[in-house]
């Protein structure tokens, strides 16, 4: 913890190679197979990271570091600026370690503004990493039970210019 900010680390072993698992964090169409209803990922330093998680809950930030297939770092916050969790105000570091059975994914989420947000994001990452383990191993994760609705079409069109 630093200057009244909070963090956590979590990890999961996934039965897929790091090269594939890494892509599930950096390619929009793969991100939405496990995490979110709409994603926009420009996976380069300074590129946009945009994720509509449930159809109503949108995260926004930018990629800070992209080191295939070892590590990806991006900023994260609520697009609506909920409470004091402003867009890009926290940082997610994901590392991909080769192991005998595939990949160990380790998430360190830090600079989270409140303990409440830390606690809810820790639960959220646990939920979504479980879904990632299924899809990266070639299985169907099914419909996300946390999904509230499809993202508004106008939002997707506005973000893509179409």
Query: Which quaternary structure do these chains form?
Result: single chain
Secondary-structure arrangement, i.e. CATH architecture? 2-Layer Sandwich
Report the radius of gyration as a whole number of Å: 15 Å
DSSP strand tally: 7
End-to-end span in angstroms? 42 Å
What's the number of helices? 4
Structure, explained:
The structure is a single chain. With 162 residues, this protein is α+β, with helices and mostly antiparallel strands. The protein has a single domain, classed as START domain (Alpha-D-Glucose-1,6-Bisphosphate, Chain A, domain 4). The protein is built from four helices and seven strands, in the order βααββββββαα. The protein has helices at 18-26, 28-31, 115-136, 153-160; strands at residues 6-14, 38-41, 48-52, 58-67, 71-76, 90-99, 102-112. The chain has a seven-stranded antiparallel beta sheet with strand order 1-7-6-5-4-3-2. A hairpin with a 5-residue loop joins strand 3 (48-52) and strand 4. The longest helix has 22 residues, at 115-136. The mean pLDDT is 90.
List keywords for this structure.
alpha+beta; seven-stranded antiparallel sheet; 162 residues; single chain; Alpha-D-Glucose-1,6-Bisphosphate, Chain A, domain 4; globular
How are the SSEs ordered, and which strands pair?
Blueprint: E1 6-14, H1 18-26, H2 28-31, E2 38-41, E3 48-52, E4 58-67, E5 71-76, E6 90-99, E7 102-112, H3 115-136, H4 153-160
